[in-house]
Amino acid sequence: MTTAVPPSPAAARTDLSVWPASARPAPDGDVAVGGVPLAKAAERFGTPLYLLDEHEVRERCRTYLRSFPDTDVLYAAKAFLCHALLHWVREEGLGLDVCSAGELEYAVAAGFPSDRIVLHGNAKSPQDLEAALRLGVGRVVIDSAWEIARIAAPVPAGTRQKVLVRVVPGVSAGGHAAIRTGTDDQKFGLSVADGGAEHAVARILDQPRLELVGLHCHIGSQITEPGPYVTALRTVVALLARIRDRHGTVLPELDLGGGHAVAHRPGETALDIPALGARVRRELAASCAGAGLPVPRLAVEPGRALVGPAGVALYRVLAVKRTGARVFVAVDGGMSDNPRPALYGARYAPRLVGRRTTAAPRTATVVGRHCEAGDVLAADVALPGDVRPGDLIAVPVAGAYHLSMASSYNAVGRPPVVAVADGRARLLVRRESLADIRSRDVGL
Q: Alpha helices, DSSP H only, in 136-216?
């Protein structure tokens, strides 16, 4: 993650820079998002609770479309998926990127046009491929040489499935080793350096039931500046030129993936999307001109950058414990609804909401209710010294990779999702109940 200087405790009480643009502090110590006071939302829907600011999502979609004109902007559904969100991004003119038959069928059942969907995955199952062909997915991204025949075999005679090849450009970028995907030492894609990508291209071009339309690369996540994308782009354009020279084929599409950083805490760096769009489009035009290539149709795949900053998680404090020199604030959620701190060491800026306080701040660690020492939501953060059971803690930038990675560990149901806009709150996804969890158990 990007290193940032933590704000002073006083500044942390008023700084809403990483919150949705609609966030407004109230005199009673609460914060309203989308015109909805958080304390009222917690009272109505219970906690833990996820709020998603509809206007924030839509404006972020529009920012991408303005920054990347004549580009296919595909929402990366793995960040978070629900029917309402699919409706929003479709209305705003975006396509969709999915990674499984489950995500694909979910999207199509919600009315998303299958020809505007791209299917990814480093190890696609037979069910994934069957669903892609049955539903008419627009593109399948080939991730390994093994997939070529597997995809081609079930394609009906007389038809062709459009595919891209995911290439590894040898660029190391991303906020954590677990989310760097542009180098040869990880599981995704086919290497440019060792010739694997070109070998796959040659094999695909020999498949009459596959139509190779372009190349794809995704170099990592939480990337804070355009440089790595430019480096990757140059490598991929050079590969496009070699494919033209060796096979006489000019590929018309180039997908540069996503991984655009957002700030989770005040002072962190978010990727400037308009600057990225201008730099990438300028470099693509120059690189293609230098190689004597027409400029391919560009695609980008933002996920976190569209929904992450639009989400706020709300928790109720259950206990405050002092152990030695540390203060632990235990809440009614935890790693079952947000595993990112345990997986990646993700850092957040939680805030007391719902009441005023004049207490001096102190350093505390916000922990969850689960039976794991690693169940930590936010380590060593400034909270008012009088935090007590019953208080509300809000965590901004909670819209991505929380509920999409959630579990029912300890038989604790996953939280609901509520949309907020124009002073209205409406339930999008209901709370998972114990009955839901039990219903999967078929018994003895």
A: 146-152, 196-205
Token pair in block for residue 185? 């030492």
Helical residues (DSSP H) of 268-387, grouped into ranges = 273-291, 304-307, 340-344
- Contact between 119 and 151 (Cβ < 8 Å): no
Residue 150, SS3 per DSSP = helix
Q: List residues bridging with 378 in a β-sheet.
A: 366
Residues catalogued as catalytic:
371
User: 328 forms bridges with which residues in the sheet?
Assistant: 321, 365
Tell me the C-alpha distance between 201 and 204, whole Å: 5
Cβ contact 1:22 at 8 Å: no
CB 10 within 8 A of CB 279: no
Q: Looking at residues 415-423, what average pLDDT do you find? A: 98
Instruction: Print burial letters for 141-166: b (CB count within 10 Å at least 16), e (below 16).
Output: bbbbeebbeebbeebeeeeebbbbbb
C-alpha span between 94 and 81 (Å, rounded): 14
Q: What is the pTM of this model?
A: 0.92
Distance CA 425, CA 161 (A): 42
Measured in residues, the chain has a length of 444
pLDDT tens-place string over residues 234-267: 999 999 999 999 999 999 999 999 999 999 999 9
Cα 308 from Cα 384, distance rounded (Å): 26
- 371-413 pLDDT per residue, tens: 999 999 999 999 999 999 999 999 999 999 999 999 999 999 9
Q: Please answer whether residues 419 and 428 qualify as being in contact, where contact means their C-beta atoms are separated by less than 8 angstroms.
A: yes
> Closest Cα partner for 259 from 211, 225, 295?
225
Amino acid at 256: L
| Element holding 366 (H helix, E strand) | strand 361-367
